[in-house]
Amino acid sequence: MSGLAEEKVRAREQWTLDPCGAVTDREHEFGTREFFDNVEHHRYTEYAAWMPRVMGFDKFRDARLLEIGCGMGTDLLQFARGGACCTGIDLTPRSIEITRHRFRLYNADGAFMISDGEHLPFRDASFDVVYSNGVLHHTPDTAGAIREVHRVLRPGGTAKVMLYHRNSLNYWGDIVLRRGVLHADFLRGRSVAEIMSRIVEFSSHDARPLVKVYSRKEARKLFSLFKSVTIEVEQLTRPELRFLSPLVSESMLDRLRKWIGWNVIVTAVK
Ligand SMILES: C[S@@+](CC[C@H](N)C(=O)[O-])C[C@H]1O[C@@H](n2cnc3c(N)ncnc32)[C@H](O)[C@@H]1O
Questions:
Q1: Which of left, alpha, beta for 208 (phi over 0: left; psi -120 to 50: alpha)?
Q2: pLDDT tens digits, the chain, 270 residues: what are they?
Q3: Does residue 226 belong to any structural domain of this protein?
Q4: What is the Å distance from ligand 1's center to 15 Cα?
Q5: Residue 1 lies in a domain
Q6: Is 158 in contact with 267 (CB distance < 8 Å)?
Q7: How far is the CA of 198 from the centre of ligand 1 (A)?
Q8: Overall domain count for the chain
């Protein structure tokens, strides 16, 4: 991986300094069981309770499953607990170190390697399932990475990929209206892409990773090589509703989440 594109250098910097989800537990020492338990608890109860159901962590027993961009291995460990044969790759060496350590800590089996999702080091048709959550919108050639997902899946295999959603409250409300217009970032000459690279990912070091967004239609188009494609939208928390929150019932929040949530989840069968 010599001569890495500038966006990928920034991605490595971002997730070396701020591993994905680490900020959700500042109470325990990084890398301890208590730390990982808290990260996991926060993710599947407070932040994204929909994930176990929609991602189907327990639905792939004995499947050969590849995760692209496994980060701290939070989701990959759930697939392993569900009985999948897990392989995790990540562009950032520290992500692989953390995931390997975490699997060892929980006595789970898996294979891990530093690798770029745009150029997967696997033969055609090597996996039954390819999973990627919040990764492929950070890489310059997203379409190329999805061609790789297609290539390494066996015919009939399933891809499950989460991308950030353009037609979401987060994009139009927080990024465009609040930051772009009200905080005058547009007046300062900042583009939406620049605003996103500054604020979407938690960053203690201002690494400014590449961030892209996709509408349902754009996401579907990216997966046009696949035989069947299903699109779901999820991810909206009450604090994001700000002053409107007291006016929104739980059932309204459910409907809003599936309409203008921040995540587009593509399930595609090869
Ligand atoms: C936002 S984090 C998501 C991590 C994990 N999937 C999760 O949901 O917690 C993005 C991860 O993707 C990795 N990444 C970014 N670009 C990549 C690429 N081209 N190939 C593989 N991994 C990549 C980063 O190193 C980082 O660990």
A1: left
A2: 658 999 999 999 999 999 998 988 888 999 999 999 999 999 999 999 999 999 999 999 999 999 999 999 999 999 999 999 999 999 999 999 999 999 999 999 999 999 999 999 999 999 999 999 999 999 999 999 999 999 999 999 999 999 999 999 999 999 999 999 999 999 999 999 999 999 999 988 899 999 999 999 999 999 999 999 999 999 999 999 999 999 999 999 999 999 999 999 999 999
A3: yes
A4: 8
A5: no
A6: yes
A7: 17
A8: 1
